[in-house]
Specification:
The structure is a homodimer.
Chain A: E1 13-17, H1 21-33, E2 38-42, H2 45-53, E3 59-60, E4 72-75, H3 79-87, E5 97-100, H4 106-111, E6 118-123, E7 144-148, H5 156-165, E8 169-172, H6 175-210, H7 214-220, H8 227-235, H9 238-251, H10 261-280
Parallel strand pairs in A: 1-2, 1-4, 2-3, 4-5, 5-6, 7-8
Antiparallel strand pairs in A: 6-7
């Protein structure tokens, strides 16, 4: 594997495919902190116009071929679109380094097998509402940014500076370990929030929900996420999500009498300890 | 039913039994906004010393009998202690008006049947950590404060001003409706947070949890609640909590293939709508 070229750790020309919440926030973050970086965007014309008007991109591309010659391309579209882009990848091994932001990594890594410069990525950050209008320059500040493909991948000379510029906390994981962890800490919580919102609203109606405290609001905030994004996420991680759902259901008190204080107590105490460890690790 | 005496809507002498997070925050809130109110506290000597030193109470009582002659007594101990106090209630029908702060209301209302001046209460507010040291004057600001016992109960001339002084949002409910709603919006979320924390920590360990985003932290914050408080809450509401658990489990995607995008989509869309209604109603 040849060493990086002398200028390989510089980042001066970046392309972003998909300017929604994540792609738009990457553009906004680079603008705020690395004003000298030239940004090319690719999306639908209306979105490109909006991004251009907001000063988030320098050039609007018409298709992938327009991104030739860039140092780094970030695929920031929903998973099905990322898979399609990778299947039509027009560049050879000397083409741009590529990374993505998909919330699951096994399917994307498989689709990217023939793209030598690909480093899988997942910035673990989001917001209540999607779309370019909600993009924020600080969306990734201090948040985990998982990279898949190994700590010695030459493409890291481009992807590393990107994550660094945006304030992300780099974590290296395998696609398998990433997807399994996300099933438990992201996809399962999402499904739980949706089911809780549903069960409570059906049972209580508005008068009951009016008595809800901040705990309930927190526990159901994820239920406001746009459902269409979740199509691709759940489809691409179904085995691990099903495992996580089973583990969660096994942890719920289910048998007759299991809600009695003395039987619930050990479960609560263990969860207290786990949660305290989570807080120590950097809340 | 005689009308209130001329001075019955004034509140000048209040007793608080139990100076933990809730009782302490009631004292702190009254101190901050109604400095003229004289507060008598009843708790263990060490807690009373602490409350006195913090300027939260004027007088430390030794037992219930010391609270004779007050206008309002607030029972702010855990549920088993509230039930015990009510069973030993030493005052007659002309004694102080009484209210409580218990998170479930059917058991308490039954125990208070012979206490004529009793108005059940539940300020729906909490914090990550219990105890007087975490008491806050603004804990109840803008939060629901459920009152049980009817909108014409004469005791409301004392309890109403208390809730008003602390900034609570009064909601009248029956004990039954309150307990059922709380099963869904408080007790079920608590159990879910505990089970999710448990399942994720067991499956992922620290490396996986390090990749967790803010959604997971939100969804497990309740798992930090002290388990001992939950003994009494779950014990006193077991039927409704079991119903809520069943409804929630029925709302989870369980069958083979139910995680496919086109089948998950309607569930997500419905939860989106319910959640939007919750936000409109005053988040």
């Amino acid at each position: 594997m040849p060493g990086p070229a002398p200028d390989a750790t510089r980042l001066s020309r970046v392309g972003i495919v998909g300017l929604g919440l994540i792609g738009g926030s990457i553009a906004a973050g680079l603008r705020a902190r690395r004003r000298e970086i030239h940004i090319t965007g690719l999306d639908e014309p209306a979105v490109l116009d909006q991004a251009h008007a907001a000063g988030l991109i320098d050039v609007a591309a018409r298709d992938l071929a327009d991104l030739a010659g860039l140092e780094l391309i970030v695929l920031a579209a929903p998973i099905p679109a990322i898979l399609k882009t990778l299947s039509e990848w027009p560049f050879d091994d000397d083409g741009p380094v590529v990374t993505d932001v998909a919330s699951t990594k096994r399917q994307v890594m498989a689709a990217a097998a023939r793209v030598k410069g690909f480093v899988g990525g997942h910035p673990v950050a989001g917001a209540a509402h999607g779309g370019l209008a909600h993009a924020r320059a600080d969306l990734f500040d201090g948040r985990p940014w998982v990279l898949v493909g190994g700590e010695t991948h030459p493409g890291l000379t481009r992807v590393g500076p990107l994550v660094g510029a945006l304030g992300g906390r780099t974590l290296f994981m395998t696609a398998e370990a990433h997807d399994r962890a996300m099933a438990y800490v992201s996809h399962l919580p999402q499904i739980i929030a949706v089911a809780l919102m549903h069960a409570a609203a059906e049972a209580c109606g508005e008068p009951g929900l009016a008595a809800a405290g901040s705990g309930f609001r927190e526990m159901t905030r994820l239920a406001a996420s746009p459902g269409d994004l979740w199509h691709g996420i759940l489809d691409s991680n179904r085995d691990f999500v099903e495992e996580a759902l089973r583990s969660f259901q096994a942890a719920l008190p289910a048998e007759e009498g299991s809600l009695q204080g003395d039987r619930v107590q050990p479960l609560f105490a263990r969860a207290n300890r786990h949660r305290a460890a989570l807080e120590r690790d950097g809340e």
